[in-house]
């Protein structure tokens, strides 16, 4: 099953919790990287590219991309220039990609909203690049996003909470656990709406006694109940 089908009903929070439960390194983009508009849900294989001051590197990356990919742009977190605008976004959309994640800034915000392709960035800036740096031989092989390295072997999931990167070879496993966490949380919320408190559902008094007696952590206690809250 491909990534969109695996993650279509999951949030970044579900997936981050699933990674934690499975011992998969949790790679979330720094919280300053936000959707340009609310309500986006993006999932696809990463198509990384490192920007050096000119749009030609994006056009080159699209020549290697597949429909359904997510363009992950590394502009080193710069806040002195925008590296993606409306023409790049339109070209990305026409190539069949489903979103753009920018470790840097965007511009042409109004036009981006009209195009409708989900974009996440560190913010907007009217100024485009004034530089042109040498392009590395591996500029299309990997992209940085905060402290993380993203490659074509990663799946990108983005929504209003931010961005999480998952190794593609663990995607099915992570998605399955994330779906169980989602279902558990939904059941818990339904029971709370009908009067059963979260403390009752999690047998909180039993946990306090076990913590005092055996040093049990709340996560260990929740796992013994197959209850989700923290992860």
Q: What does this protein look like?
A:
This protein is α/β, with parallel strands linked by helices and 231 residues long. Helices cover 37% and strands 22% of the residues. The chain contains nine helices and twelve strands. It has helices spanning 3-7, 12-22, 56-62, 86-94, 109-115, 171-193, 198-201, 204-214, 218-225; strands spanning 27-28, 34-35, 42-50, 70-74, 82-84, 99-103, 105-106, 119-121, 142-145, 148-151, 154-159, 162-167. The strands form three sheets. Strands 1-12-11-3-4-6-8-2 form an eight-stranded mixed β-sheet. β9 (142-145) and β10 form a beta hairpin. α4 packs parallel to α5 (109-115). The mean pLDDT is 94.
């Amino acid at each position: 099953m491909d990534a969109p089908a695996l993650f279509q009903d999951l949030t970044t929070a579900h997936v981050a919790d699933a990674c934690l439960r499975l011992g998969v390194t949790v790679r979330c983009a720094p919280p300053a990287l936000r959707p340009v508009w609310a309500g986006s849900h993006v999932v696809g294989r990463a198509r990384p590219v490192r920007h050096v001051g000119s749009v030609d590197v994006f056009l080159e990356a699209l020549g290697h991309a597949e429909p359904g990919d997510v363009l992950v742009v590394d502009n080193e977190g710069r806040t002195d220039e925008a590296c993606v605008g409306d023409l790049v976004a339109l070209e990305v959309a026409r190539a069949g990609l489903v979103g753009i994640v920018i470790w840097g800034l965007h511009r042409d915000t109004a036009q981006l909203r009209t195009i409708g392709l989900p974009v996440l960035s560190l913010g907007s800036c009217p100024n485009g690049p004034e530089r042109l740096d040498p392009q590395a031989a591996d500029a299309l092989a990997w992209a940085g996003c905060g402290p993380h390295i993203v490659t074509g072997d990663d799946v990108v999931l983005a929504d209003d909470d931010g961005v999480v990167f998952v190794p593609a070879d663990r995607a099915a496993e992570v998605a399955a656990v994330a779906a169980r966490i989602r279902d558990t949380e939904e059941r818990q919320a339904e029971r709370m709406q009908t009067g059963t408190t979260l403390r009752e559902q999690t047998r909180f008094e039993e946990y306090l006694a076990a913590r005092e007696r055996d040093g049990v952590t709340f996560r260990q206690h929740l796992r013994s109940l197959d209850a989700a809250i923290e992860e």
